[in-house]
Write a sequence for this structure.
C-alpha cells in the first residue's frame, strides 16, 4: 500500500461532485484513450513521453502527475487537500477509468448545472468539454478533516506543495496519527503535547528525589492547589478505624470528600491499597453529614494488578498511576512543584 497526495482543485466545480460519487479525477483531457492507460500500466515510458511530444509539442514536467495518477494501485491511500481541510480516500479499482466512464444520469456540477457526455468527455451545459481525462474509483474514508486540528507540521507542509500529486510514503506515520486523532476527536494541542512529553520527567524526579512521607505531602499539596478547603493526614491510631486513608481532602463548596491512599512504590501495585481505602470509605459513609465520599489510590507505580483494577471497577474507586498523577500535577501548574516537601 502506498500513500499519495492528490489535488482536485482543477475543474473543482465538477471534481468535487464526482468525488461525492466515488471518483477521483485528473485533467489531461487531450490524452483520453485506453491505449495510454495500457502503456502506462506496462511501464512504457517512451510511449508516454511520445504522446506528449506528439500532442503538445513538448514533454512537460507535469506529465509525472498523470503517470502517478494512472499508476496508483488498489488499496492505496490518497490524501486530498481542500480549503482548510483534507479528505482521506482509498483506491478501490483495479484499473484507471476514462472520464466518460464516470457519467451517470443526474450528474450535476456546482450550482446544480447538468452534465452530459459525448461518449469520451463530460460536457457542460454550454456544450464545452470539461478538462478532465481520467478517473480512479475510490472509497472516501474520511471527509473534510480540519488541517489545523489534526494535521501535524510535516503533513501540513506537504499539503502546500504546488504540483497536482506526489508520493508521500514518508509521511505514513503522520497520516495514520492524524486519522486516529480525528477518529477519537483528539485535536493537536500544544498543551497536551507538552504534558505528554514532560510527564515522564516529572515522574522520574518524584521517584528519585522523594520518599513516602514527602510523596504524601505532594499529594496533599495537589489537593490544596485544586481547591480543597481542608486537607489532612489522619492519625494512624484513629479510633474505630477500619481500613486506612493517607490523605483526606474536603471540598466544602461542592460537598465532596476524597479519601486517598498514597503509595510510593515501583512496578505494579497490589490490591492492598485499594482494599484499605475501600474499607475506610465504607466506614465513613455511615456518617450522614451530607457529603459525597469518593476513594482514590495514587501511586508512583506504573500499573495496578488485576485484583486491584477489578475491585476498583466494582466499587467506583479511582486508580491513578505515576504517569497519570504526573500529568495531573503539570495540568495544575508547574508552580505547585515549587514547594518544600
Amino acid at each position: 500500500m502506498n500513500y499519495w497526495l492528490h489535488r482536485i482543485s482543477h475543474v473543482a466545480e465538477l471534481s468535487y461532485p464526482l468525488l461525492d460519487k466515488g471518483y477521483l479525477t485528473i485533467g489531461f483531457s487531450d490524452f483520453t484513450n485506453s491505449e495510454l492507460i495500457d502503456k502506462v500500466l506496462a511501464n512504457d515510458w517512451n510511449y508516454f513521453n511520445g504522446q506528449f511530444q506528439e500532442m503538445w509539442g513538448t514533454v512537460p514536467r507535469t506529465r509525472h502527475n498523470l503517470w502517478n495518477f494512472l499508476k496508483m494501485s488498489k488499496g492505496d491511500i490518497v490524501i486530498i487537500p481542500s480549503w482548510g481541510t483534507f479528505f482521506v480516500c482509498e483506491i478501490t479499482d483495479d484499473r484507471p477509468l476514462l472520464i466518460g466512464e464516470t457519467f451517470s444520469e443526474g450528474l450535476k456540477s456546482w450550482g446544480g448545472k447538468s452534465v452530459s457526455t459525448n461518449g469520451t468527455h463530460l460536457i457542460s451545459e454550454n456544450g464545452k468539454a470539461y478538462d478532465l481525462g481520467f478517473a480512479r474509483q475510490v472509497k472516501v474514508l474520511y471527509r473534510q478533516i480540519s488541517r489545523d486540528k489534526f494535521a501535524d507540521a510535516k503533513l501540513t507542509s506537504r499539503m502546500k506543495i504546488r504540483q497536482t500529486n506526489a508520493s508521500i510514503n514518508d509521511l505514513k506515520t503522520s497520516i495514520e496519527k492524524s486519522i486516529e486523532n480525528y477518529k477519537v476527536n483528539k485535536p493537536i494541542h500544544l498543551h497536551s503535547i507538552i504534558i505528554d512529553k514532560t510527564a515522564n520527567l516529572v515522574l522520574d524526579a518524584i521517584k528519585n528525589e522523594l520518599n513516602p512521607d514527602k510523596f504524601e505531602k505532594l499529594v496533599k499539596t495537589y489537593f490544596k492547589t485544586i481547591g480543597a478547603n481542608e486537607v489532612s493526614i489522619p492519625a494512624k491510631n484513629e479510633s474505630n478505624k477500619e481500613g486506612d486513608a493517607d490523605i483526606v481532602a474536603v471540598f466544602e463548596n461542592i460537598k465532596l470528600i476524597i479519601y486517598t491512599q498514597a503509595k510510593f512504590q515501583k512496578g505494579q501495585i497490589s490490591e492492598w491499597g485499594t482494599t484499605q481505602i475501600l474499607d475506610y470509605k465504607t466506614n465513613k459513609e455511615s456518617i450522614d453529614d451530607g457529603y459525597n465520599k469518593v476513594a482514590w489510590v495514587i501511586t508512583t507505580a506504573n500499573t495496578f494488578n488485576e485484583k486491584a483494577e477489578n475491585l476498583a471497577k466494582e466499587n467506583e474507586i479511582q486508580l491513578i498511576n505515576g504517569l497519570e498523577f504526573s500529568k495531573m500535577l503539570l495540568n495544575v501548574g508547574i508552580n505547585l512543584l515549587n514547594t518544600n516537601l
User: Anything to note?
Assistant: The longest strand covers residues 134-146. The mean pLDDT is 90. The chain has twelve helices and 18 strands.
